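Work Package 4 report. The design task specified in the project plan requires that, given a folded chain encoded as structure tokens, an amino acid be chosen for each position. We show below one input record used in the internal validation round.
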């Protein structure tokens, strides 16, 4: 392997690695009413504040990240499992030239939750993303209550408990 190629592989692997841990806000307001706007995969305007009143799991991901692709079925399952008061929002950080790949993965995995496109990386600063995937749970007021830096795995009891706690908090 050539040196530039080896360096690229190392950098790609590092970019796709979250810390793998989770943290809970335990009632602390980490971000007071997060705001985020973008375009959906079908070109419509998206405004995160339109989801106030619901518990929202924001998932920042990219098509080139294997753990991101691996967790898509689990995210779809969470989206379906928690009723109308909960929604998963996917934010793809893929560059514009890869948006066709985003739509392809959505179709392949039967993704029905909203996915927005963020080719400029606005989500990284808005949600404090250090690696991919990163999931941030927002309460009904848009305040961060839990986060996972790394993939949400099947039957993830910690993620499920955080979602249930946010839903019951009202």
């Amino acid at each position: 392997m050539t040196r530039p190629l080896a360096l690229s592989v190392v950098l790609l692997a590092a970019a796709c690695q979250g810390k793998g841990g989770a943290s809970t806000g335990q009632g602390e307001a980490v971000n007071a009413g997060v705001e985020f706007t973008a375009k959906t995969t079908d070109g419509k305007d998206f405004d995160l504040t339109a989801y106030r009143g619901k518990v929202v799991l924001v998932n920042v991901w990219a098509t080139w990240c294997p753990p991101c692709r691996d967790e898509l079925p689990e995210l779809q399952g969470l989206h379906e499992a928690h009723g109308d008061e909960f929604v998963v929002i996917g934010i793809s950080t893929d560059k514009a030239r890869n948006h066709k790949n985003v739509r392809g993965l959505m179709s392949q995995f039967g993704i029905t939750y909203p996915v927005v496109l963020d080719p400029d990386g606005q989500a990284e600063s808005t949600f404090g993303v250090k690696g991919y995937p990163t999931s941030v749970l927002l309460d009904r007021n848009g305040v961060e209550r839990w986060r996972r830096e790394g993939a949400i795995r099947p039957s993830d009891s910690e993620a499920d408990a955080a979602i249930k706690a946010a839903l019951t908090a009202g």
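Residues 3-168 form a domain with the Glutaredoxin fold (CATH 3.40.30.10). Validation will be extended to a larger panel in the next phase.
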